[in-house]
Design goal:
Layout (H helix, E strand, L loop, with lengths): L11 H13 L4 H45 L12 H19 L15 E5 L6 H14 L3 E4 L11 H6 L2 E2 L3 H9 L3 E4 L3 H7 L13 H9 L3 E4 L4 H4 L7 H15 L1
């Protein structure tokens, strides 16, 4: 026979608490809440790990969407203007610069070393997400009033929807001759010799995973452009990657070779 506590012996709050415990089949409601707190404590870091990179990717796609809207709005002016995309670049640079200040407190020291005109090779460490380069490019566009070409891995050009973004921001797929031409034309050129391998398998000690990738030096010699190294403090602490999982490197090498073919 089902029995319930007498409301004359319990207050309304105690009565509801007893009913809640009976419905849940728990003897101790406090233990259930403690269990929920434990789950929240366990899964919150995991949520942060996946949500933050997802937020960055969402922001990138919003930037691409803005470019498509901008292109449609200004398609009649395209035939009459050589600088159609300047307004779009500065608008996005302002958004990314604001994101860097608010989200990461990003600031740059030594921007005066970037020439106001003429070529230069910017060599930088590749974090798990090269977000520091996005912020750096925004600073160069806004404070120096010039663009910086960049070299990206082949797989970036195969990501759906990225083509317009790569074209507007002068991203190259990396042949040495094309890099030399960009520098000889007086442009800045950003290169991360470690690339995707460094992004995935470097760690908080910041080892350079360049291997024998010294093409950036030859590009600088051929174009007679100065090399300016760049490093972002706490880049690895902001976004994590697989870390030093040496066994995965062999699988990665084979898989990546298949993907880029």
């Amino acid at each position: 026979m089902l029995s319930t506590p007498d409301m004359t012996d319990l207050g309304s709050g105690g009565y509801l608490s007893c009913l809640w415990e009976e419905w849940l089949g728990l003897d101790d409601l406090q233990g259930y809440l403690s269990y929920l707190d434990y789950l929240l404590w366990v899964f919150t870091p995991l949520a942060v790990v996946f949500i933050l990179p997802g937020f960055i990717l969402l922001f990138v796609y919003l930037s691409i969407l803005f470019l498509h809207v901008y292109k449609r709005k200004n398609q009649l002016r395209e035939a009459y203007s050589n600088n159609l995309w300047d307004g779009a670049r500065k608008t996005l640079a302002t958004l990314w610069d604001g994101h860097g200040k608010i989200w990461h407190g990003y600031e740059i020291h030594g921007l005066e070393k970037i020439p106001d005109k003429g070529p230069a090779v910017i060599v930088y460490y590749h974090g798990a997400i090269p977000i520091d380069y996005y912020y750096f490019l925004a600073k160069v566009i806004l404070q120096k009033g010039r663009m910086c070409h960049a070299v990206a891995d082949h797989f970036v050009f195969k990501v759906p929807g990225f083509r317009l973004l790569l074209e507007v921001f002068s991203v190259l797929h990396g042949p040495r001759e094309e890099c030399v031409r960009a520098l000889q034309a007086g442009h800045l050129l950003a290169i991360s010799p470690g690339g995707l391998r460094e992004a995935l398998f470097s760690d908080e000690t910041y080892p350079l995973l360049w291997g024998r990738r010294q093409g950036f030096a030859q590009v600088a010699l051929d174009s007679r452009a100065p090399i300016i190294p760049m490093f972002t403090q706490n880049l690895r602490e902001g976004f994590r990657s697989l870390g030093n999982l040496s066994k995965l490197k062999y699988y990665f090498s084979g898989l990546f070779a298949i993907l880029v073919c």
